[in-house]
What we know:
6-stranded antiparallel beta sheet; 39 strands; 2 domains; Tachylectin-2, Chain A; Jelly Rolls; mainly beta; globular
Amino acid sequence: xxxxFRNPILPGFHPDPSICRVGEDYYLVNSxxxxxxxxxxxxxxxxxxxxxxxxxxDRPSQLPLDGVYASGGLYAPTIRYHKGTFYVINTLVGGTxxxxxxxxxxxxxAGSWSEPYWLENAPGIDPSLFFDDDGRAWYVxxxxxxxxxxxxxxxxxxxxxxxxxMRLIGExxxxxxxxxxxxxxxxxxxxxxxxxxxxxxxAEGGTGHDHAVTVARSAGITGPYxxxxxxxxxxxxxxxxxxxxxxxxHADLVETQSGEWWMVLLAMRPYGGYFYNLGRETFLVPVxxxxxxxxxxxxxxxxxxxxxxxNLPEHRWPSLPVCDHFETRTLAQEWNFLRTPRDxxxxxxxxxxxxxxxxxxxxxxDKANPSxxxxxxxxxxxxxxxxxxxxxRKDSECAGLVLLQNNEIHIRFVISGGAATTVRLVKRSAGDxxxxxxxxxxxxxxxxxxxxIESRRFFFKxxxxxxxxxxxxxTEPEAxxxxxxxxxxxxxxxxxxxxxxxxxxxxYASSNxxxxxxxxxxxxxxxxxxxxx
Length: 533
């Protein structure tokens, strides 16, 4: 009897999934925007249980995110396998040193990936790769229509790729502009060949509530492509703003070794109103073929929170620890930085058993690489605790925890210097109005609470019950003193903050524009998800 699993398969900020299968192994990558290292790669044997293998782009030379604006950086990647080599193709948006579309490759997805091969004359974003039966390789992406009639008038285009020279050859051709009349934001294209037919699957309608998956097919790779009359093959836009899963789109298909077809896609889970602090997450849904077309979740037509498992042997991985005691030589794979680190502002060896952050002038509010080490929020209900040893020497110095949406929208929960040492809770926001996706609006600081505190060792606790956030401080284990309780966290959601990322929570230190030789030592950091299983 088949079992069931719970969606999403990758909770928290895991947008734009792309998947490939090699034998009995499945590999998946996601967008990461301004975070470093870039493009996490996951491994599964059953499509339900995933383990992190590392990141595709984990060296500064591969990923120049210097000065990238919030929700710039790495957009939708595609992962494919061809004749013993894995390829990831991606777009870097808004780079101050390099921008555009590029390819990296590796013999082992858990190993070292190549330096980027930057593609010339490849406009647009969301590139994908397709390897045909005759050995030819093809680039497929989206771009603005040459004579665009409205905002979001995009077209999907194709051009042959010379894998040896890593350059586009031949003439580009336009394949499709989407299924809807005056379709907006035709993007996220992937090509497949099934039973001798070429299938082009794309996202359209924008990456918010109106997101949708559509498909077209052709007898030849260059077209003409005929849209499926039953498009969209998946969308939740007709289910209402109070549906538990919204914004379904940006999908990729995979066929299992048992002959089943499955789709990975992004969607959001609003809570406390139409707010999704978790960002866009990765979901899994079954697909079957009827009359030469893919049918998603036959009989239901939507993504469910509980779904039947694939016809594959269950393969669980060892559970990851909820508490990081920083006793390893390298940071665990869930940790990320903001933009590309160009100096060693962090250390696991300077004081063994601690993560040491060096205070630097860079602030969280800057489009810079501040002294921040964070991980994704992955639950609507969670508890975070951390232990910090820190003595501020100047008024400008601070260290503690951060709940981060972007440089202009976040909460700083920090120990600060001054006439007396204080614990300070600072909310930075741009107001409550819904804003366009980009650019992210400028925020302003508001001190929610400030308490004097004397110690060298501090214990932090953050509790989330949906959108209600509570903050506690202690100088002795478990002797918690409330700093602020029931703080409304909905402003950390994308509909309020703009952009494309989910909320992070992590450790932070800064000298706020002033020189400093001080450091902050984090002894441990614990994240416990409390959502019901």
